[in-house]
Amino acid sequence: MADAHAFIPLSDRDEENLMSGFYATQRGVKKVIVKSSRDNYSAIMHQMGLDSIISTRTVACNTILRTVRSRASRSFAAVERMYRLMDGQAEALEFIAQVGDPYIHVPLKDLHVIRDALIAVIVRDGQVMVPFGNDTIEAGDYVVVISRRKGLSALGEVFKRG
């Protein structure tokens, strides 16, 4: 088993996945990802050295939230993808900037980003860039925002008015 590069136990029983993942870790497998449907096992898994946990409940919740937020937002670029980070304390949100949005062509230094939010990445024409003050958001850009504020559903909500 030490020859394996990765191991992912996918049984229907969380306990089996937990024990199989722990066994693989003990046998020297470098990357172990454990599927779990119970959030109350995550602390135990972390203590056992299992840091990559896929929660079926969290995946389903994120999918539902992304769909609801996307449909609720019509005026600005809606959420394309959403991931919860740090046990739900923060979210990574991906938006696609649209033609005519008020923040298009405006240098980031001239936009007022809401508190507890960060424009982390802009992807333009397949090129990933970490933005700085003189960079702008252009129509068609993928914009990744990291935020501790919950409920953001549109890229326009990341910027303060005025």
Can you offer a commentary on this structure?
This protein is an alpha/beta fold and 162 residues long. The protein folds into 2 domains: 6-57, Rossmann fold, CATH 3.40.50; 73-158, 2-Layer Sandwich (Alpha-Beta Plaits), CATH 3.30.70.1450. The protein is built from 3 helices and 8 strands. The protein has a 5-stranded antiparallel sheet with strand order 4-5-8-6-7. The chain is elongated.
What oligomeric state is this? single chain
CATH architecture of the largest domain: 2-Layer Sandwich
Q: Say how many strands there are.
A: 8
Give the overall silhouette: elongated
Our Rg estimate from Cα atoms comes to: 19 Å
Amino- and carboxy-terminal Cα gap: 60 Å
What fraction, in percent, of the residue positions are helical? 10-25%
Largest sheet: 5 strands, antiparallel
By CATH, the topology of the largest domain is: Alpha-Beta Plaits
Side by side, the strands of the main sheet go: 4-5-8-6-7
SSE ordering: EHEHEHEEEEE
CATH-wise, what's the superfamily of the largest domain? Answer: Regulator of K+ conductance, C-terminal domain
Count of helical regions: 3
Mean pLDDT: 81
Task: Tell me the β content.
Answer: 25-35%
Estimated structural class:
alpha/beta
Which CATH class of the largest domain is shown? Alpha Beta
Low-confidence runs of at least 5 consecutive residues: none
Count of structural domains? 2
